[in-house]
Amino acid sequence: MRRVVARCCPTQTRAGVNMAAEILPTHSPHLFDLAVERAVQLLRDGEVVALPTETVYGLAANALNHNAVSRIFAIKGRPTHNPVIVHVASLAMARHCVLDWPPLAGALARGFWPGPLTLVLTRARKIPDVVTAGGPTVGIRWPSHPFVQAVIRSCEFPLAAPSANLSNQLSPTTAEHVRKFLGDTIPLIVDGGQCQVGIESTVLDLSVSPPRLLRPGMIHAEALLAVTGELASGSSAGSRLKSPGLLPKHYSPRAKLLMLSWKDDADLHKKITHHPSHITHHASRTYIVAHTHIPSAEGFGGISVIPHDAEAFARAIYAELHRCDEVGAELIVVEQLPEGQEWQGIRDRLERAAQIE
């Protein structure tokens, strides 16, 4: 059963008084329409709301409203040098957000939009500095989730929408994850079910030649190369951030995270005990997330198994890390991922989550 609670007035929120977010379901046409209407009303009033997308839940505000987008940064505790992605619901809206629309952008949009691909292009003057961290480019995405599409179409303006969590922490893939992070800081969370992609979008920079893959995702390099013909990867050293997801530590659970490979139970215990990071852990608070070599539960707090399939793994991994945090894990050990382009985006998320501050 979905939990619906009353919302305090926006002025109380701005004054710093805690409130409980209204949580609206969308599982029938009538409820879907009511949730769209409520979200649009708040967004037009300059509020920040949590909405489902196919990747992760987003913390959304009017991308053309400087003050509204600034509230996203304040709610998340997000550093101002980390830009946010602008979400649109048509090619026309995308083109209005950028200074020019090269043929390659059109070809990529035809191939992958709506979907989990963000294109970085030279920004239009109407895009506020806060969105782009003061940079000359902006990331644009047309999400495929029907709810956020309906909201953007009804608003008739694009939405800035980074993940609906506190900065650098685990991204939310359910409405309950959002409530746990932000339930007393925003007026509305729309429950659109579990996200079907499960990790953030692929980000491709078209403001340079050849195009540069800034953030890998579930649309992987081989698929992009079929359209672009050539592709560079990684952000330029010392350059201004053009995309979210490029900070060294990101997507992190509260527990420490390791990525390890092992042959058997003894090998796993040995590698945890003698890991170079010297992470302090208690066996009863150590949780294993495996996909191929499944250890016995003896000596661990719990064992989780995610399918040995990149798409299924991506859908499940954030929810599994959330669950480990909720049961009090001190250490989470994730089985090393297979090689292959389809795993690159998941590997990027887990490697950043495993960074030690």
Shape: globular
User: Which range does the strand content fall in?
Assistant: 15-25%
Mean pLDDT: 91
Distance, first to last CA = 39 Å
Provide the structure class: alpha/beta
Describe the main β-sheet briefly: 9 strands, mixed
Q: Which regions have little confidence, pLDDT < 50, spanning 5+ residues?
A: 1-16
Strand adjacency order, main sheet: 2-3-7-4-6-5-9-10-11
Number of helices: 12
The quaternary structure here is single chain
> How many strands appear in the DSSP assignment?
15
Helix content: 25-40%
Cα-atom radius of gyration: 20 Å
- Element order: H for helix, E for strand: HEHEEHEHHEHEHEHEEEHEEHEEHEH
Short summary:
This protein is of the alpha/beta class and 357 residues long.
Q: Can you characterise this structure?
A:
The chain is of the alpha/beta class and 357 residues long. 32% of the residues lie in helices and 17% in strands. It has twelve helices and 15 strands. The strands form three sheets. Strands 2-3-7-4-6-5-9-10-11 form a nine-stranded mixed sheet, with helices on both faces. It is globular. The N terminus is likely disordered.
